[in-house]
Every structure is written in structure tokens, then in C-alpha cells.
Amino acid sequence: MKGRGLFLSMGVALLCATVAAQQTPPAAPAGQGQGRGGGQAAPTGPHIYIRAGLKTHGPGQHDYPQFLADWSKVLTERNAVVDGSLHFPKPQELEGVDVMVMYKGDAGGMSPEERTTLENFLKRGGGLVSFHDTLCGPDPAYYSTIVGGAKKHGEVNYTLEANVPYTVTDKANPITEGIDGLSIKDEAFFLMTWAQSPKIHVLATAKIDDTPSAKGHAGEEVPQIWTYENTLAGGSQPYRAFVWMQGHNYSNFTDAKIQPMVLKGIAWAAKKPYDALMTVRPARGRSSGH
Which of 6, 49, 99, 180 has the fewest CB atoms below 10 angstroms from its CB? Predict the structure, then answer.
């Protein structure tokens, strides 16, 4: 009986070990780590922080919170690591971040602590992307040295609902591919304060539309899309900034020609290849042939 009991115990143990081995998934190959997506590979794209703000203006305009929600998904689908908030980021929130994407009114107005946080981020080479009235603030002379051009808060220097017809000035740059001659309904700024050393690299201009708020400035050709590279005093390396002046009407972010431009501008500011955010990765659980 003793021998039969020992034999039975050994048989049960062997059966359990066999079942466990059949149920244990094979280990992932080296270099293909498991992501948070149930076996999906971890994101390999740029680390992006979206700096948004509370909504202002009417329906469909200046919808900063909606941008945070929508573009967190847009960028994550394209293999980016995305964080963000409706507040100015703390230093620890910018650790490891490649580029901060800003869509928030009057972002040029910062406390001394916020200014220090931003400058420290730029000194290590972190990038910036600025949309619409993110350019606005109380000290355009200072803020223009951060993003290349700045708009004075409270000054009538905008067209409101207007035609914005783009003329691409750097036709070899991949960022503005396909938008030459494109006209959208949005808002353009004039009476800008421009950085002088270094200066911006203009990608596209627009002729200021003849609206009531543009008196005396209708017909002026003003930069609306540009890149800017600078090294702050004490910085270890240069940083990049990409600016698209529009975004008053939120729907323009989904324009079939505007969205690729925005994606390429973000990638460039993050010091990644232009096409780093152009490919949507397969949805979780989807496999080829099914």
C-alpha cells in the first residue's frame, strides 16, 4: 500500500507539471518587451507631454481640454509615450520628456517658478510645440526668445474668423508638404514680436484677411508656420520649437492636410525623424490574416 501511494502521488505531480507547462505562454524574445497592452510591445516613439488648459471661447473654438483627450489618443496610436495635464508641469513631470506640446491660451504668462522649469527643460534640449494663442502673454520680448515669435496679450492683433491662405516658403521641408495654396477658416495674428538672434525659419506665410479687427493690416504677408532653434545660456544643447499659429477653430486639427503637418512638426521638435508619428500601429488583439 505504501508503494502504491507513493506511485500515485508521483503520477499526480507529473500530471500537474505537464498541464502547467502547457498553460504557460512562451517567453517573449529578447528585445521585445511586454507593454501595458496585454502583450503588445512597449511604445518606442517620442515621449510627449501635452500642456493644455481650460476651455475658452465659444463652441468649437479654443478647445484645449478636447485636444488633450483627442491627441493623447492620436499620438499614442502612433507609438508615442504621452502624458499631459491642464496645469503647468512640475519638473518631475518633464523628466524623460522629448517634447512639450502646448495648446493653452496665454501660455507666455508664467510664474518665476514655471519659467525656471521651462528654461531647465529647454537647456537640456527638450522641444516645444506651440499652437494658436499659446503664443500670447504679457512679455512678448521674452517669450519670442523661447518660441521665435510672440503676441502681446490684450492687443488687437488678430483677424478673428478669417481666411488663412498658406504660401509655403520652404518647399523642401517635409513638415509643410502638401499645404501650399491651402486656405482654412481660422484666425491669423499680426503685430508680432520676433526673435532676432537667432531668427525663426519661416515655413509658410499667410496674407492677412480684410476683417474689421485687421484695419490697416489687411494684405500683409505674415509668418504663420515656422521652426526655431536656440540654445539658452547655460544650456547643454540646442532645443527645437515648432509653431503653427492656427487652431482657433478646433476642427482644423483634423484637416487631412493639417494633421500630417502637425505630426511631423511634433516629431521634428522631439528630434526624431519627420515620419516618426506617421504610422498608426495595429490595434491590440488584431493580427494579420484575421
Answer: 6
Q: What is the mean pLDDT of the chain?
A: 87
pLDDT digits (tens, 9 = 90+) for 216-273: 999 999 999 999 999 999 999 999 999 999 999 999 999 999 999 999 999 999 999 9
The fraction of the chain above a pLDDT of 70, given in percent, is 83
pLDDT digits (tens, 9 = 90+) for 34-75: 334 445 667 789 999 999 998 888 888 989 999 999 999 999
Whole-prediction pTM: 0.84
Superfamily, domain 47-269: Class I glutamine amidotransferase (GATase) domain (3.40.50.880)
**H/E/C letters for each residue in the chain?**
CHHHHHHHHHHHHHHHHHHHHHHCCCCCCCCCCECCCCCCECCCCCEEEEEECCCCCCCCECCHHHHHHHHHHHHHHCCCEEEEECCCCCHHHHCCCCEEEEECCCCCCCCHHHHHHHHHHHHCCCEEEEEHHHHEECCHHHHHHHHCEEEECCCCCECCCEEEEEEECCCCCHHHCCCCCCEEEECCECCCEECCCCCCEEEEEEECCCCHHHCCCCCCEEEEEEEEEECCCCCCCCEEEEEECCCCEHHHHHCCCHHHHHHHHHHHHCCCCCCCCCCCCCCCCCCCCC
